[in-house]
Amino acid sequence: PVDIIVTPTRVIHVNSSTRLPKPTGIYWNLLSREKLAQIKVLRQLKAILEKEQGQELQLAEQEEALPPLAKRGERGTGKKESAS
């Protein structure tokens, strides 16, 4: 859920009565170990919560549960993969 969508030519304010509710926390069960390793603040938060709760937070079973973001440096290269 977002409040504002910004494009090169427009700024769109999303109507609060029609947008989805914002999450109330982190969905640890959707976060892979791979993604967690890339985000220091989440690793730190996970360690704090596990210490407070006395149990390990369960992460996603598969390697990448969330869709990957575009890799840096690959945008606009003009290269296309060939279907083999």
Report on this model:
The chain is an alpha+beta fold and 84 residues long. Helix content is 24%, strand content 7%. It has helices at 33-38, 40-53; strands spanning 4-6, 11-13. Strands 1-2 form a two-stranded antiparallel ribbon. β1 and β2 form a beta hairpin. The longest helix is centred in the middle third of the chain and has 14 residues, at 40-53. It is elongated and about 45 Å long. It starts with a strand and ends in a 31-residue tail after the last helix. The mean pLDDT is 81.
Q: For the CA atoms, what is the radius of gyration?
A: 18 Å
Query: How would you describe the shape?
Result: elongated
H and E string: EEHH
The proportion of residues in beta strands is 5-15%
CA-CA gap between termini: 38 Å
Mean pLDDT: 81
Overall helicity: 10-25%
Class per helix and strand makeup: alpha+beta
> How would a textbook summarize the main sheet?
2 strands, antiparallel
Spatial sequence of strands, sheet with the most strands: 1-2
Contiguous uncertain segments of 5+ residues: none
